[in-house]
Every structure is written in C-alpha cells, then in structure tokens.
Write a structure and sequence with these properties.
- Helix 6 runs parallel beside helix 9.
- With about 210 residues, the protein is mostly helical.
- The protein is globular, with a radius of gyration of 32 Å.
- Helices cover about 60% and strands about 0% of the residues.
Length: about 210
C-alpha cells in the first residue's frame, strides 16, 4: 500500500498567521529550550539611573530677565519647589544664601519685579515665592531690609483683575504680617503711603 504523507504546517506558514517560527523561538533545530521569561529579563542590560540635577539658585536667577513668560514662570516654580522641599525635610540643605549677600539681593529683586509681572501666572508664582520666603526660618528678619520694596508690590496686586493674583496677594500679606509686630508694620505702611499709585494707597489703607 502507498503511504499518504502527513501534512505538517511549516514554521513559515505558522508565522504568516502572526505566530513566530518554532525554529526562531527555540534558536533552531536541536537547540535547548528557551529560558523562562524572568530569566530573560534578568539577562537584559539594565538602564543606568538618570541623575537628578541639583538645584542651583544662582543658575535659576541667571536665567532672568527673559521675554518668555514660560521661562519666568519656570524659574519661580523651580525656586518655590526647592523652598518647599526644604520646608518638608529640614535636614536637606537650605536653598537660600546668607541674608544680604549678593545672591540673596538678586533673589529678592527677581521676586519683587515679578510680583507685578504682566502675565498673571508669573505674578502668582512670584507671590507664592514671597510667601515661602517669609515663612522660612528667620524669613522675617532676613527680609526686613527689603520690606519697603516688597510690601508696595504685594499691596498693588490686591486690585489685580485676576482673582488668583488677588487671592495670592492676600495670602502673602498674611505671611508678611505674621513676621512683624503691628507697630513695625504700621511704620512701613506709613512710608508706603508716600507712593504715587492710587491703587497702592487704597490697598495700604485697607491693610491698616
């Protein structure tokens, strides 16, 4: 009798239906069984962890001034992030330089200038930075020298057209008031009354 050959699907025919050829799965005829999936993963080269760049206040303030509001916002966001991390974990190094140092002066100038930024998101970020600076350990004494510059800028934002700016300005005033006696604040506010901007005068009187 004539033997009828049995039909076997070749590896190539199986691969046409989306299945990998048997020879490729096992490394060819006569090869050992492929190692388990977990073993394959262990043998794969591992990616090296990406090092997180350390925060540099000098680098951040050096990025300003900038015409791009996204850059201004990014700088202030990075500064507030560093301040918050230190507040949550006081064992980490403080991102703030010594008070009255050149870098500290530059930091305060950046914050003061951007409290009145034309883009409201940048203004909110600057006010947020102001709050964290005054709430930081020793913030009141460190910032007393700059209070006559910062307070008018914050008061002026109480009349901003955007509610988020007005809200953050109110929070900033609360943080400022917590760091000084009433008598000291009254003396500073009286000096602010010499400002020519009517909005600042109205806000200062309301604050008193």
């Amino acid at each position: 009798s004539t033997d009828v050959p049995q039909q076997h699907a070749s590896p190539e025919r199986k691969s046409a239906f989306g299945r990998r050829p048997v020879a490729r799965m096992h490394g060819g005829p006569g090869s050992a069984t492929a190692p388990p999936r977990q073993e394959q993963l262990r043998q794969m080269p591992r990616a090296k962890p990406v090092a997180v760049a350390e925060f540099s206040l000098e680098t951040e303030v050096s990025r300003l001034p900038s015409e791009a509001w996204e850059t201004r916002l990014g700088v202030l966001t990075n500064i507030t992030g560093a301040l918050r991390r230190h507040t949550q974990d006081p064992t980490t190094p403080s991102p703030l330089p010594p008070s009255r140092s050149s870098l500290y002066d530059r930091l305060v100038s950046v914050v003061e200038q951007h409290i009145g930024d034309p883009h409201f998101r940048v203004a909110v970020a600057a006010l947020d930075t102001t709050i964290l600076l005054f709430e930081s350990p020793g913030g009141g004494s460190d910032l007393e020298y700059y209070l006559e510059r910062i307070l008018p800028a914050v008061l002026f934002q109480l009349t901003h057209t955007k509610e988020p700016v007005r809200t953050e300005a109110g929070r900033a005033l609360v943080a400022i008031a917590a760091g000084y006696s009433a008598d000291h604040l009254i003396r500073v506010v009286l000096k602010v009354l010499d400002q020519t901007r009517s909005h600042v005068l109205t806000a200062a009187l309301h604050f008193m």
